[in-house]
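## retry 2 of 3
previous attempt timed out at serialization; input unchanged, resubmitting
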Amino acid sequence: MSFWKRLFGGAGAGAEAGAPAVTREAEHGGYLIRATPFKEGGQYQTAGVILKEVDGVVKEHRFIRADRFASLDDASEFSLAKGRQIIEQNEGRVFDLPT
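## retry succeeded, writing output
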């Protein structure tokens, strides 16, 4: 199964197949960050979602980074840190960024 099908819920994608699941959440600057690292090549790839309600509509920005970790815990913590960094560097424009 391709990387994109696993990432976005292709047929038959479950936790065993490496489908992303929320492993941790944190609030930062009025945003909600969800860590969603997934298994790739025997390691866990950094990934997450940044959410915020704007004018009654929940907006989201998904991100994936090349960083990989041996443990899910380390990947989850780094995904939250990366989400915080994205928010701080792009305040007010987070949802204008390419995904």
